[in-house]
């Protein structure tokens, strides 16, 4: 097999620069055009008008379970999920990808509880920050704006750094060109289509990515040096003998007893709790989902997602470990250096080793699609903050629907460009994917407990909500920097990116705000009336039902419907809580910890079973991401077809939940105000 290298030992990009520009620009614009066209068709056939804020920001709160599940998978299908899971698999063995996956699924499922609680208590909300403002006033609102923007900025920088480095390694495209061009197509279709375009793009990208991942599950075993899961096992046994892993049982790659992996797992699960709970994009998707779709959509999406970093990370990192001593591997005869590993190049190099230029093209596509899909979610969430929480609240309280849409558009463009500039600054500051992957929890975690308490605990006081995340962030940063200085004698990018300072800082940032909040709240507790969250009119008034939904649109009707459906929403909340607890116990306690404590090193039979289960799971994920939205959304697809055929907009048939709402709407509306004002329950 061909292996091109430069004089300095670095590999020559397997693809020409033209391929990088073709994917980033041509395919980016093509996808943007398709999504803009799809938005136009939906407006023409089913009346989804993105010139209204309710459609642009929340898709009329009517997205079904299948599309919600696909969007949830996509929301966490970051380029770093694929690049990072292979990175930790290469460093730590089987434990790395497992802990990467376990660091994502439990909190995605847990978010279904927060999502349904928000649906029940604030049915007209567009962002998390509106809820915070109603409960805690201007001071709390400003604090949360800062926390959420920090979260979004760190998250998008993490994506762009990893994706740009991978694209550069594959094509030779200048890394700064990739960083600035990646958001362009995203800005176009998000600007026009809003969150529904984000959902549709999520679906398309996720389906393509999962198909390519399934291709790798087959292609890996067609390589003669590997041949089968048993053959891969033999290669990894030899790799463990040649390059034993410090902190792993017997130095083996085939054990869950890995000190480095479990420390990474602690960082990852806490950081991802912060990334989920403080990401207004997740709330926007929950608000956009129909009431009956929030819980099953997030549960199905969260559990299905687990297979992607677990399967892909294990297979591709082990392919790299098994093949890097052969001429197939791009860096042969040397191993990858620490810079290449930290830049997330394990996956691209492994793909080249098993599939040549075809593997390079596959990784280029999945990296591009993953990063653009998640950029879309980030820019729509930040644009909602700019339009609803900054402009509408502090600059123009009498803003019209048109004003809000204009500022949403401004937010999409501004944050897309800002994210590229910020990522460029980090790159020139010698910050890479490995550093951001480890330290981001220090900055994303302080808002976890105050936000959960805001939605679920009526006793949290205003003072606790405002002070605890600020104290928590200060505590986390102090512990992080102090640990780096104490352990390594300096505070630099290198020392602050080490495992132990990041573990200590992330744990401090995650848990100290909860302690601060409880202590402050117990000194002078609040007793918040949840019904007060529904008193403020948040949605812009519309004159009638939209063509795409038969739900009533007035503030009173919406409040009456959700109040009357309190029992059903509470049932969904209970189901969400049970699934969240079960997912956490399964992925974090019952499955991995006994394997860690037993110091078990995988035998050949167990490893083969491990790989087979991971492959089956990821194929099921592909089927869920690709076909469940089609099955679940078949009625709307029929309506689109009928609309195109007749040339008129087709009113979508009401769902079971909506028909129940409408059937006795009149009897509820008359006494809704009295019920809302007197109720103190969620």
Provide a descriptive summary of the structure in words.
This protein is mainly α and 682 residues long. It has a domain at 17-42 and 74-438 and 570-647: Sodium/glucose cotransporter, CATH 1.20.1730. It is 75% helix and 0% strand. α6 (105-121) packs antiparallel against α12 (294-305), α7 packs across α8 (175-219) and α7 runs antiparallel to α17. It is globular, with a radius of gyration of 25 Å. It contains 29 helices and no strands. It has helices spanning 17-46, 53-58, 65-76, 79-92, 95-102, 105-121, 128-171, 175-219, 229-242, 259-277, 280-288, 294-305, 307-323, 338-342, 346-395, 401-428, 433-444, 448-456, 462-488, 493-496, 499-523, 555-564, 566-590, 592-597, 604-632, 634-646, 656-663, 665-669, 672-678. The model is unreliable at 1-9, 56-60, 543-553 and 652-682 (pLDDT under 50).
